Amino acid sequence: MPKRKSEEMNNPGKPKKMTKGKKDVVTTTKSVVTTHMSPSMKNHVSPSQSDKINISPSIAKNPNKFLGAGTHKKNLTQAIESNTPVEPKTPTSRTPKKRLSKFSPFKKSPQKSPRKELFPKSIETQDSDTFLNFYDRTFDKVVLVSVVQMKEWQENKQTMDHLVDLNTLQKFCSLSQSAKNIYVRLVNRKHAWLKKSSLEEKYGKNGTDVIADLYTMEEAGVIESNYEKEDLKTLLELLQVAELKDLCKELKQSFSAKNKSEMIDAIYKFAIQQRNMFGQDTQSHVKKLIQKYLGECVKLASDARDVFLSCVFLVTFPFYHELSDNVTRLNDYISRIVRTVRGEIKFPSYPLNRTCIFKSAASFRQYMEAYELCTNIDMSCKMKTSETVPLLQKVHELLRATLQDQTAMKDIRERPIYLRRYSAGYIYVKTLYSKLNEIKRDHPKLAVEVLTTLLNQTYFKEYDKGKWFEALAQIYQSPHFKDNNKAADTLLYAFKVLEKQRTDKLSEEERLAEASSGSVKKLKDLGWIKHSLMERANMLIARQKGRIDRDKADALTEWIQDIGEPLTLARVVGLGGKLMPNTNKGLKHVYMSQSSDGSRTYSSVEEQASAYFTRLGYTRYRHDEGLTLRSILYALLWDVIYAPPRYSEIWGVFHSPYQESPLDWRTSNFYERRKSKITKRLSEIKEMTPEQVVAEVMKVESEHVDESCVINWSCVSRDNVNILTNCVASITVPLLVNIGEYIIQDVDHNAQGFPDLTMWNPDKKKSIFVEVKSMNDRLSIQQKVWLHKLCEWGANACIAQLKPSAETGEEKQSNVV
After folding, report:
1. Is 7 in contact with 621 (CB distance < 8 Å)?
2. Which of 553, 590, 574 is nearest to 813 (CA)?
3. What is the pLDDT of residue 62?
4. pLDDT at 19
5. Do 650 and 545 belong to one domain?
6. What's the rounded mean pLDDT across residues 204-214?
7. Which end of the chain has less neighbouring CB within 10 Å, N or C?
């Protein structure tokens, strides 16, 4: 279970040295101390500077984030005082890492890589009984669960046909156990030709007849051995360097190649250019020579391999949401099983009900193909290749074809919103919007076409239409178009569509109530996106250059008045401090302040802010952007999240014992389908005392601690009972309920933008929420909405912005908003 550490200030007035065993974390020739910010710190630079340097905990713990790659704890002082990042000792460009879910067990930062931790060397060398146990827990379970589930779905008439080929699975099940073991190892390797002799040497221990097993596997059709049809370059890749050199000798050629790749290119070029007496190239002759070196080879049959990987997809889709290949999916599934058996991770207990989501093999296959294509796009973006935009164009064409498929769209219409995520169309829509910046940078017209397609469909991610409208208006305002009138038309149409979308969801009684009141604001309860659209509309109305038509300006003004709810601007507190120069982009800023004794303290802007408010009496704090409060909320709503009533409307959101959350988590369906239960539970919480609230949280903690779920257990640890009680008492229970109700209505969007610091005074029972900004930072619309909401609920909230020219604590208007 990943532990996201929160910062808390226990005794801000006393410098604290971070130690590891008996040695200081920071060791230099000068007096360097890792410390919290001193309350006596002045925010100006004295001409005379002491040799004593204080380095804040965040910089000491993660120096690379502030000072660049290659910075170590031993050279922190050198890096800071030189005003330039330390040159990295190793290249900073690395292969993109597999994206992991927020609560993945791999987020632990283990000593070994996840693969080494889950698949230690002993897996390859241990005795057969141990490996059989390992196998029984993994691949066999994938196959059996798939077979049993598909038969059950077909018997219940939930699917028209089997989602994968059962004949292939039955042939696999007929193999000997040793053959199965070899197969699962080959699935986990690169899909390529392998020498039989190498496989026999590797897997022939403990008396296993590998050659016989390979023969039965070929008879079953799960592997193939005819590699003569492969092209010459593929065959050359299979040879070792020594074998390539011997091949060159047989060809009586000497190539000045420096490595294997150059040697292969040279041999290939020679083979296609050299002609025999009949005018033909010598490729067939070279292939025969290669076969002599390779001997007999085998490779997993592509069709059968696809069947098994489809099984992996079928049993992992409820919990695995990352863009990656199916072999990585298999490894994640194996890791969950193995680590669960070992007791290293746990998952919540909940009733399983595996309803069939895919009505046909075709819909399941299209979903997998869409996932694979979008995985390739994600990798292409990370590697910054030229293939990204062409692949996105292909996705756009596939989406339009999918939307015109009446059978597929009929299936989508019958699904609840949260199950539409498991379809090709949803994957296409999500990918196109998430990679829109890749398109609009050089292809703005294509970006307009993509957004138009997204806005015209009514099947996928309807709750994101506000963002799509704003993105379209922004493109029309860009230098590519410079058409503010089109942007205004887009916003007017957006207001109209979103209001209709809202009213369509109302019941007849709610419509009558709104009609009778006559004072209901438009776009009510739409969330932060309406404020974003209103902000852009106000910007268009106020433009002097490129002014929009008067009728459009009047129409936008009328909509803004009908929507109402202007955002309250939180007060801005200026923080003094000196920004240290930094030449590297992407690094966090380092700020320097000097105390009365001349010592210098280097810290982050958040630590500057926490030090200032600590001096005002807020002696405890969490720098976690609301993570602690969300963890308290989710613990209080545990039964709502993880205990759906049997055969109720929300029955069937748990398909796998390895899920960390229900299938409808982070969708609009989650709140809509549990609204009455959530409202009732929040009403109960509102009547509790802070002690009772924390007692409820501790009850959940004692029963479910360390289970991999939506709660960060380090935030609600039993060791912090007093801290949590003081936090809730200072914030007040009603305010906690208001915060929780707003978040749970739309976890995917409303959890974003919460202020950086939650600070409180346990003695005076007062609290403050602080959004911290450096000099040139601006508030996002989500942050503005959160500050507005907190002020609306009576909370103390403000913006702390670093202003080197200002006196610390000075309040004045800022460009931050």
Report:
1. yes
2. 574
3. 82
4. 39
5. no
6. 85
7. C
Do 156 and 213 share a structural domain?
yes
* Cα gap 733→735, rounded to integer Å: 5
Residue ranges making up the domain that contains 308: 114-316
Q: Is this prediction's pTM over 0.90? A: no
Compute, in degrees rounded to 10, the torsion defined by CA atoms 803, 808, 809, 815: 0
- Tokens for 725? 């009680």
**164 vs 153: CA distance, rounded Å:** 13
Q: What is the three-class DSSP state of 607?
A: helix
Query: Helices 166-173 and 302-316, interaxial angle, to 10°?
Result: 100
Residues 225 and 119 in one domain: yes
Residues 496-511: tens digit of each pLDDT: 999 998 888 888 888 8
State whether 788 and 679 are in the same domain: yes
Could you tell me how far CA 644 lies from the centroid of its own chain?
A: 26
pLDDT (tens digit per residue) in 501-560: 888 888 888 888 887 777 677 888 778 899 999 999 999 999 988 899 999 999 999 999
Residue type, 28: T
Whole-Å CA distances, 767 to 345, 664, 787, 790: 36, 34, 14, 12
CA distance 435 to 21: 47
Collect all residues with Cβ–Cβ distance below 8 Å to 39 and sequence separation of at least 6. Answer: 12, 13, 611, 614, 615
Q: What is the 3-state secondary structure of 395-428?
A: HHHHHHHHHCCHHHHHHHHHCCHHHHHCCHHHHH
Give me Rg for the CA atoms of the chain: 31
Cα–Cα dist 312/306, whole Å: 10
Name 634's Cβ contacts closer than 8 Å, sequence gap at least 6: 641, 709, 710, 711
- What is the distance between the alpha carbons of residues 146 and 316, in angstroms, rounded to a whole number? 11
CA distance 388 to 202: 40
Q: CB within 8 A of 221, min separation 6: which ones?
A: 168, 171, 301, 304
Query: Does some domain include residue 19?
Result: no
Same domain, 416 and 365: yes
Contact (Cβ atoms closer than 8 angstroms) between residue 522 and residue 495: yes
Token pair recorded at residue 189: 């390797």
**Residues 642, 761 within the same domain:** yes
Instruction: Lowest mean pLDDT of 315-324, 372-381, 719-728, name the range.
Output: 315-324
Of all residues in the chain, the percent with pLDDT exceeding 70 is 81
**Residues 103, 319: Cα–Cα separation, whole Å:** 11
Q: What is the number of structural domains in the chain?
A: 3
Torsions phi, psi for 102 (to 5 deg): -55, -35
The residues, ordered by sequence, that sit 6+ positions from 658 with a Cβ below 8 Å of its Cβ are 318, 319, 333, 336, 337, 340, 347
What's the CATH code of the domain at 442? 1.25.40
pLDDT of 788 reads 95
Q: HSE of 540 in the Cβ direction (CA atoms, 13 Å)?
A: 34
